[in-house]
Each structure stands twice: as structure tokens, then as C-alpha cells.
Amino acid sequence: MPKINLSGVEKNYGGNSANAVADLDLEIGDGEFMCLLGPSGCGKTTTLRMIAGLEHLTAGEIRVGQRVVDSVVDGVFVPPEKREMGLVFQSYALWPHLTIERNTDFGLRLRKMPKAEREQRVDQVMKTLGIEKYRDRYPSQLSGGQQQRVALARMLAVNPEVLLLDEPLSNLDAALRLEMRAELKRLHREFKTTIVFVTHDQWEAMTLATTIAVMSEGELQQVGTPNDIYERPANRFVAQFVGNPPINIVELGDGKSEVSQLANAYLGARFAELRDAGSIGIRPEAIRLADAERGVADGAVAGQAEVTGILPTGGSWIIELTAGGEKLFMTTHQSPEVEVGEAVTWWAKSKALHVFDKAGQRMEVADRLMRPAKLH
Predict the structure, then answer these.
(1) With b meaning 16 or more CB within 10 Å and e meaning fewer, what string describes 221-248?
(2) Single residue among 205, 234, 263 that ends a domain in this structure
(3) Within this chain, do residues 226 and 281 fall inside the same structural domain, yes or no?
(4) Mind listing the pLDDT tens digit for each residue in 1-42?
(5) Which of 22, 63, 340, 367 is most exposed, with minimal Cβ within 10 Å?
(6) Nearest-angstrom CA–CA distance, 225 and 34
(7) pLDDT tens digit string along 92-109?
(8) 45 and 93 housed in the same domain
């Protein structure tokens, strides 16, 4: 499978509108499962449509392997049907008057594949996706999850070099989404197809992707593995967009909350350049409560707070802490031994702190923060 390279790609719909996609440089590797992640209107679907050839570039170039498929400067544009890519939309776009078998082999018939080879290919794909028993039914006789499998089977049958998926699971209920995520992971392992998947659902991206590209307002914010994106967010936007419950953000500087002053003193005592840096982020699962058996870890930031809420979520709990008007949320998989209204001591290890400057960009101090230090 070929690599896909986007170089300086821009898309503007004319007038005085801002770029839907601005100066995008992105490489999608051979056999990669790339998720384009971001909120509505961030440019992820526009990017997918430009890769597919459904949108013309305003500027830049798209290359698939060594082949240029779109270039504004060189005046090259390869139409969608010649890009050897499969596209599955949010709506499944199945032919209602054709059986499931005929929907599945539709692309193969257009390519005039010999009948014996076509039937063998269709049987293989339908069996892989578990829809062979529905071959004589029509789309209206299937559930949403089954229709989704048919849409995927139709694309996989033509063995595309690249499979493009535009939020294909958003119309399914929670149980079916979970089932289809597992199905997509299995298909990626089995077919080794390069997949580009558009979603606004962070959990979909985290569970499916080998690589995630986070976008906001048409601009690429960060590219990395799911662990990179979660554990080392490049800026505040990425930190706040990925994670549920969201990351706790504490603004630094004089005149802020009690927690802010505590965090500012903690950082400033270790690294003078971090005082009033901008803000820090603390993931809810990184916050702990001190008790008689387990006190505050050496070198950790710690403070006093009141428990103002306990929210069970099934298998875990979200605890709301309030200190001097600042709210912090923590999560735990152990049944809480505290009650609403109780005063507690909270703490978090230094390596769990994400430090951002005033522009919201990550400050690379993680390695030094991992070394325990005492306040003076």
C-alpha cells in the first residue's frame, strides 16, 4: 500500500471566508490506520474529501506513493474513480433495489471482473464480515450495524489501496459502535489496508487508530500515537479535547485561586522560569487522596479541598473537589471512602503535570519534573 503525502494543502470556499483547511502537511504511512480527530468544522471531513478527489485544492499537493493525484501548481487532478480508493460515507448509500450480494459486488461488476473471480471475492468478503447469510436480502431488511458491514464489504471487495471512512459509526447505538470498532480493528489487521478515518469521537480515535491527527479550525494541532496524544499533548486544545472527564486546567499567576497559587509556588520553587508560565493541566486519574495508610508521595504537589460531589459512572467514580472556588475532578476505580462535605488532602505526582505557556503551547519540562524536589 502507498504512502499518502499532503504538502501545503489549503482549501478555501471563496469570498472572505477563512480557510477550511490551512497549510496542512501530513504523511499517512503504508498500512496505517490514521484518525483525523477534531470538533465539527475543524476541516477533517474536507481533508478526507480532498484525498478522495471530491474537493479541489486551493493550494498545495497530494501525492499517493510516487503519483501526484492533485497539484495546484502543476495543474494535475486525478478524478476520484481513478485514485483506487474506497470511500464509506456517514450514510451508507446502499442501493435499496439491489440485494446485499449485488450491493457487495457492485464495484466489481463496474470493473468487469470475470464472474468466477467476482463470486469468489464476494464470498470471501461477506464471510469475513459475517453477512453471507443476508446475501439475498435487501438493505431495508437489515439493521444499521448490518448495513454498515455491507457498505464496508462493498468497498473491501474492490480491494482498494486506501479506505476512507467519514464518521461511519455515528448513526449506530453504543453497543453496535463498540462491536464495529472491534470489527474495523480486525479488518485492518487482516487486510492491511491503509485507512483514513474521520471522527469527532475521541474514544473512537483512541481505540482504533495507530496514529491520530488532531485538527482545530482548519489547522493541524498534533500528530502522534494515541499514547502520545494523551500523555504529551502539544497544547491546551489537544489536552482539553482528548480525555473524559476533561483534563483539569489551572491558570497560573497572581490573583488567581488558592489552587493556582499553590501550583505556582510549587513550580516556581523548582524552576524559576515556570512561575506564572500560563497554566497547568492535571488529568483526573492522576489526582489521589491522602489517607492514614497512604500519605502524600514525595515531591508531589498537594493541597486541601472539600468533596463537593461524588458521581458513580458504573465501575468508576468521578469525585468533585473544591478548594478556594477552584474545582478539580478526579476519577477512581475504587469505591470512594469519602463523603460529600468532607475535608480531604489531594495530591498529584510532578510527572503528571502538563505545563503550558501563555499561548497554550506545551512547555517541555517533563523530564525535570519527574525528579522529586522539596518545597523551601
Answers:
(1) bbbbebeebbebbbbbbbbebbbeeebb
(2) 234
(3) no
(4) 678 999 999 999 987 778 899 999 999 999 999 999 999 999
(5) 367
(6) 9
(7) 788 999 999 999 998 888
(8) yes
pLDDT, mean over the chain: 88
CATH number for 10: 3.40.50.300
User: CA 75, CA 54: separation in Å to the nearest integer?
Assistant: 16
What tens digit of pLDDT does each residue of 130-169 get?
888 999 999 999 988 788 888 888 888 887 878 899 988 7
Helix (H) or strand (E) holding 207: helix 202-208
Q: What is the pLDDT of residue 271?
A: 75
Is 195:211 a contact under the CB 8 Å cutoff? no
Instruction: Please tell me the total count of domains within the chain.
Output: 2
Same domain, 159 and 202: yes
CATH number of the domain that residue 356 is part of: 2.40.50.140
Band of pLDDT at residue 293, cut at 50, 70 and 90: low
Average pLDDT of span 281-300: 87
- What are the cell numbers at 56? 479541489
Q: List Cα–Cα distances, 33 to 13, 25, 186, in angstroms.
A: 29, 17, 12
Residues 6+ apart with CB under 8 A from 10: 19, 21, 22, 23, 24, 57, 58, 59, 60
Domain identity same for 307 and 202:
no
Of 241, 146, 233, nearest to 199 by C-alpha is 241
Sign of CA dihedral 67, 56, 81, 27: positive
Q: Are residues 308 and 170 in the same domain?
A: no
Residue that is last in its domain, among 203, 234, 265: 234
Question: What pLDDT is stored for residue 366 in this prediction?
Answer: 47
Q: Are 86 and 48 in contact (CB under 8 A)?
A: no
In a domain, 87, yes or no: yes
Residue 229 within any structural domain of the chain: yes
**Residue 282 lies in domain:** 248-369
- The x, y and z cell numbers of residue 219, run together, are 489547522
Q: How far apart are CA 342 and CA 305, in angstroms?
A: 9
Q: Are 159 and 144 in contact (CB under 8 A)?
A: no
